[in-house]
Write a structure and sequence with these properties.
Keywords: Cytoplasm, Methyltransferase, RNA-binding, rRNA processing, S-adenosyl-L-methionine, Transferase. Specifically methylates the cytosine at position 967 (m5C967) of 16S rRNA. InterPro entries: MeTrfase_RsmB-F_NOP2_cat, MeTrfase_RsmB-F_NOP2_dom, NusB-like_sf, NusB_RsmB_TIM44, RCMT, rRNA_ssu_MeTfrase_B, RsmB-like_ferredoxin, SAM-dependent_MTases_sf. This is 16S rRNA (cytosine(967)-C(5))-methyltransferase. The protein is of the alpha/beta class and about 425 residues long. It folds into three domains: about 130 residues, N-utilizing Substance Protein B Homolog, Chain A; about 60 residues, Sun protein, domain 3 (Alpha-Beta Plaits, 2-Layer Sandwich); about 190 residues, Rossmann fold (3-Layer(aba) Sandwich), CATH 3.40.50. About 50% of the residues lie in helices and about 15% in strands. It is built from 20 helices and twelve strands. The strands form two sheets. Strands 5, 6, 7, 8, 9, 10, 11 and 12 form an eight-stranded mixed sheet that branches. Strand 6, helix 16 and strand 7 form a beta-alpha-beta unit. Helix 1 packs across helix 5. The protein starts with a helix and ends with a strand. Bound molecules: S-adenosylmethionine. S-adenosylmethionine binds next to helix 15.
Length: about 425
Amino acid sequence: MEDFKLILDGLYRISYKNEKSTDIINEIAKKVEDISYITKNIYGVLENKLYLEYILAKLSKIKVKKLDKKVKLILLIGIYNIHFLDRKNYAIVNELVNLTKKVSFKSKSFVNAILRSYIRDEKNLSKINIENDEEFNSIKYSMPLWIIKYLNDSYGKDYTQKFLDSLNKERKLSIRINKTKITREKLKNLLEDKGYIVEDSLISTLSLVIKNPKSLASTEEFKKGFFTIQSEASIKVCEILNPKKNSNILDICAAPGTKTSLLAELCDNSSKIIANDISFNKLSKINENIKRLGLKNIEITNFDASILKEEYKEKFDYILCDLPCSGLGVMDRKPEIRYNRTMEDVISLSKLQKNILDKAFLYLKTGGILVFSTCTIGSIENKDNFNYLSKKKRLKNIKINGKDYLEFNSFEDETDGFFFTKFEKI
Ligand SMILES: C[S@@+](CC[C@H](N)C(=O)[O-])C[C@H]1O[C@@H](n2cnc3c(N)ncnc32)[C@H](O)[C@@H]1O
């Protein structure tokens, strides 16, 4: 029952207190020896939430929305375990009824009745009886309908289907080599000696792919700053900016500093980098990264990038605009994102992005380079903003692999959904 209590508390904080699944899992990992069952449950319930609610709606006379929040979560955990995991069904019901007694004593018979009814008629109740394709997919893949419609509009039905099919597949983990401290071959050998299965990345020359990444962040090599855990697409963004040594660089939205630190590594610490973020609380993360990796010449600032800073005009050789976005490209790693976002968010974020890009444009020297990136998919925050930048007379698009912009997706590239485009000020 202790596991179920932790799972319930975790899901409650993610669903109703706006906390992040990764933070919750990291916190629980410090308290228990084996986190695997808890992780499977937290991610499993989040990844299948709409489907589980659909089944629950068939079983409950009370509307799902009207149920007590914790009781509802207990039922979703129960249905998830019965349907998706290979555990003894009645033992699960007993444990969850005992947990219900602690959070809402009066609901214990209700929980017992619902879960037992589900066990009796699981096959029939698990069927999705919906004819409309988009609505069917929304339940099957637990993807809000607006996201399915938006992806269909942005890329077509074939893309959307492949994207949905690729959700919840296990992803490999990639790392970035700190070339100021170690060579690729040396790091590869050190990690292989520890039993890690290491492959070269197909996306970035600065990256290695680790097939069995358990406890990677506890290794001596990580603590010594030989590598950073980072998705291949995110590494590629800095490679594309490709800053020269002894230059002036502005990383306008920098926290937690994953890309700032790579930019410093790429310049062998010779360039002056301003790493800025609006969120004061996140600045210490940038500092942590800089210290662990032993980097120099980085100034951390804390201003709102949508407000013009006169003193920055025409000052920078390189500007990285890795801007706040809806994060739909990392929905498979952070499943709660899909339920927290709305179409209104996408529209307002795209306006903020344009606003920050306008300022960054002014801060570039003639001949300076700007890279705009997001970890999202969908045309409004990506292609539309490429078009917006293309309309500026003094910006010239620099092709990447012969293309106006690159857009990675999880199903073809097995990395985060990522977008980036590069411009020179002329
Ligand atoms: C995509 S994240 C940046 C990730 C970072 N580049 C990295 O690789 O570690 C976007 C960041 O923009 C910051 N942000 C949001 N609105 C901002 C604004 N108006 N001005 C400056 N920073 C902002 C957020 O706090 C967040 O840390």
